[in-house]
């Protein structure tokens, strides 16, 4: 495989393109001020995100019916509001808080890097976020996607092979012509297992600063880039 074969770049979104933790903390602190609350939104954000994978696994095991990520986020939110003793929010306010995942802010290099890459490649998200979430996020953050690809289209969640191969098929390409871009090694390993190429862009500030993940490059990945601008330089975007 070579970079010359690549026609499309598919991007993980949460953490790779956008700062989910920082955005949840910012909006949560605004809610604290508006409602006289004293919630530790850093801890809240970590727990909220922490329920993401276990709840998706419940869906994939058949313990829950197919549920959009918005629905899984709301299940977790209701549990956490009770755990943190948050009372007095209306249903509209809870829904607005749940939709913070539609309003996540991009990393500073994300939009300029994507614009450079867009010159030479088809660019699209490939995320477990539902289609409306990803579309609204793109509008909010100015993410210049050529199209929006969601795991929802395949009624599966990454790292299920159906998501990666389904995206390749929709783009009318072969797996080796598509490169998955992510800050998470497990996502890239799953993509490579289906024949896609892989670009690792570590995001050391994605999560709780006290629990920084392993960011060492994996020699299996075709590209390791410091950020999206560096990725564009390496790929000639």
Write up what this structure looks like.
By secondary structure, the chain is of the alpha/beta class. It has two domains: 149 residues, Rossmann fold; 83 residues, Orthogonal Bundle (DNA polymerase, domain 1), CATH 1.10.150. Helix content is 44%, strand content 11%. The protein is built from ten helices and eight strands. The chain has a six-stranded parallel sheet. The chain has a two-stranded antiparallel sheet with strand order 2-3. Helix 9 links the parallel strand 6 and strand 7. The longest helix has 16 residues.
Q: Count all strands and give the number.
A: 8
Which runs of at least 5 residues are low in confidence (pLDDT < 50)?
Answer: none
CATH class of the largest domain: Alpha Beta
Name the CATH homologous superfamily of the largest domain.
HAD superfamily/HAD-like
- What is the name of the CATH architecture of the largest domain? 3-Layer(aba) Sandwich
Profile the largest sheet. Answer: 6 strands, parallel
Described by the principal axes of the CA atoms, the overall outline is globular
Percent in helix: 40-55%
Termini gap = 18 Å
Fold-level CATH name of the largest domain: Rossmann fold
Q: What's the helix-strand series?
A: EEHHHHHEHEHEHEHEEH
Spatial ordering of strands, largest sheet: 5-4-1-6-7-8
Radius of gyration of CA atoms, rounded to a whole number: 18 Å
């Amino acid at each position: 495989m070579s970079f010359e074969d690549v026609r499309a770049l598919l991007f993980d979104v949460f953490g790779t393109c956008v700062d989910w933790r920082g955005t949840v903390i910012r909006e949560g602190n605004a809610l604290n001020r508006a409602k006289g609350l004293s919630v530790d939104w850093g801890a809240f954000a970590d727990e909220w995100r922490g329920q993401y994978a276990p709840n998706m696994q419940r869906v994939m095991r058949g313990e829950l019916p197919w549920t959009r990520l918005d629905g899984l986020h709301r299940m977790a939110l209701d549990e956490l509001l009770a755990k943190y003793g948050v009372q007095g929010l209306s249903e509209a306010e809870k829904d607005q808080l749940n939709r913070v995942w539609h309003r996540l802010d991009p990393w500073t290099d994300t939009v300029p890097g994507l614009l450079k890459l867009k010159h030479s490649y088809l660019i699209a998200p490939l995320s477990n976020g539902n289609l409306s979430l990803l579309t609204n996020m793109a509008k909010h953050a100015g993410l210049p996607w050529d199209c929006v690809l969601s795991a929802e289209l395949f009624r599966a969640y990454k790292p299920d092979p159906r998501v990666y191969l389904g995206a390749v098929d929709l783009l009318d390409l072969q797996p080796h012509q598509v490169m998955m871009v992510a800050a998470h090694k497990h996502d890239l390993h799953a993509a490579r297992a289906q024949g896609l190429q892989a670009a690792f862009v570590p995001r050391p500030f994605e999560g709780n600063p006290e629990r920084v993940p392993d960011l060492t490059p994996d020699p299996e990945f075709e590209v390791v880039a410091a950020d999206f601008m560096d990725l564009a330089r390496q790929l000639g975007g």
